[in-house]
Amino acid sequence: MAKVQKTVTFDLPDSFEQEVPTTTMGKTSTMEYDGPSTLILWIDKETQDIEQTWDKDDYTDRPVPLNCEVKELHADTDENTIKIGLLFGGFGQRLLYEIRVGPAADKNRVIADPSDPRSVFGENAIIDDYTKPLVFKQGVNLDNKNTDNDFRRRSDAFIRDIRNDLLASSDAQIADDMPADLKTEWEAYRQKLRDIPADWAAVPNHLIQFPMAPDGEYDDPYVRNDDPEHEVILVGARTAADADAIGQLTPIDGIDE
Predict the structure, then answer these.
(1) Is 0.70 surpassed by the pTM of this model?
(2) Which of 53, 112, 120, 199 is deepest in the core (most CB within 10 A)?
(3) Which value, to the nearest 10 degrees, does the dihedral of the CA atoms of residues 65, 48, 133, 9 take?
(4) Is 255 a domain residue?
(5) 145: burial class by Cβ within 10 Å (0-12, 13-18, 19+)?
(6) Is residue 254 part of a domain?
(7) Residue at 108 is within a domain
(8) CA pair distance 100, 80, nearest whole angstrom
(9) For 103-149, how does the pLDDT look when each residue is reduced to its tens digit (9 = 90+)?
């Protein structure tokens, strides 16, 4: 198969907390790509949305839906290569990092590499129109009706809704006749929930780490669904490259202290 192996360079936003990202600081990052040299795209003639994609080397003649036309996307520029990597694959497994945020006694947060193109650029914008320049993921308030939301910039109300759901689901866990030590664990867990978001006031809401319940760990869907078995790089095990990647985040209270 005709594969491409190359290093792509791309811009990074000045801040990962901006609602409309800017690039005035001139920050950049790189990523290794090993994937198709050309993608076959089925494009909806009316909406211009991408309906399906194939590696050109694996593509065989097949009936094209009447509403679609066939286009090709070549890995001939860094931008087009990143588009292929986001749409089809070609980047390695995403790195996961432990970061220090929030109360010192609480469990640290795990995030995906913020300098990875999959963390930086929005795939949906490519699907909507693959001919346009790459678009940074934009932070939005998840309490509004914006359907193109990202996990960033969650409102206090959104966090409180999660907290209240967890409190409600744990109501039945405490009984007068339960062992005292277990009852103490549940009471401490529920108090930690009540202290959210106040105890995390200096931390962006999307980085709040909910506490572990006595009967199991809080389900963090972003990390679990992204890389369920992937090793997390701990704070003390970071290389210089890891520290540089984490340094792309907006300064956040507690990180690397």
Answers:
(1) yes
(2) 120
(3) -20
(4) no
(5) exposed
(6) no
(7) yes
(8) 35
(9) 888 878 888 888 999 989 989 999 999 999 999 886 544 344 443 44
